[in-house]
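Exercise 7. Given the encoded structure of a 194-residue chain, write a plausible sequence.
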């Protein structure tokens, strides 16, 4: 993944109408995840949460407003500057986290890069949202996902599940919430470390 691809233009016109207008949406997502995950995996305010690929930190701020310890990491220099304006300093992702969140991140990485990253992060649970293929990996199911030239890893849900199994994570459950949900074109699941 190259940092220069994820510049201001990427976040404000290429893949998004305007990413900076999504703060309320991500805060609602954090609230919904807290309520749901507290029951499903006993998420508490003592947990260390990492939003890997956090962009400008909207989800991080959403968790923090609810009293949770949440840090962010992203490779985008532009997003890092924007996050700093919002009081978020990125952290080194090579530490133990109870929960690592990857929303629309892994499709930007090769399998090799994903494996290397998982060798460095130490997460008890992983929450993912990944656009998927329904035609054997030839193209993404959703047209918006096909338009993004930075989406370089196109897999079916079963292929993603096999990759997670090979790096030591088992499917725990699918998410079906208002702000974040599993569908034909998107895999949205929580995995548990084996």
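Solution.
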């Amino acid at each position: 993944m190259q940092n220069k691809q994820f510049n201001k233009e990427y976040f404000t016109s290429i893949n998004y109408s305007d990413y900076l207008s999504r703060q309320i949406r991500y805060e609602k997502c954090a609230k919904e995840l807290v309520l749901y995950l507290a029951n499903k995996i006993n998420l508490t305010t003592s947990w260390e949460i990492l939003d890997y690929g956090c962009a400008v930190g909207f989800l991080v701020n959403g968790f923090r407003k609810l009293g949770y310890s949440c840090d962010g990491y992203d490779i985008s220099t532009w997003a890092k500057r924007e996050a700093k304006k919002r009081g978020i300093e990125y952290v080194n992702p090579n530490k133990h986290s109870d929960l690592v969140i990857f929303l629309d991140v892994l499709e930007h990485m090769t399998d090799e890069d994903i494996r290397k990253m998982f060798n460095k992060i130490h997460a008890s649970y992983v929450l993912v949202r990944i656009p998927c293929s329904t035609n054997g990996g030839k193209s993404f199911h959703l047209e918006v996902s096909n338009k993004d030239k930075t989406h370089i890893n196109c897999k079916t849900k079963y292929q993603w599940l096999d990759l997670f199994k090979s790096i030591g994570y088992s499917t725990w459950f699918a998410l079906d919430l208002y702000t974040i949900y599993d569908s034909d074109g998107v895999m949205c699941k929580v995995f548990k470390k084996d």
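Remark. Residues 23-40 form the longest helix (18 residues). Students should compare their own answers with the one above.
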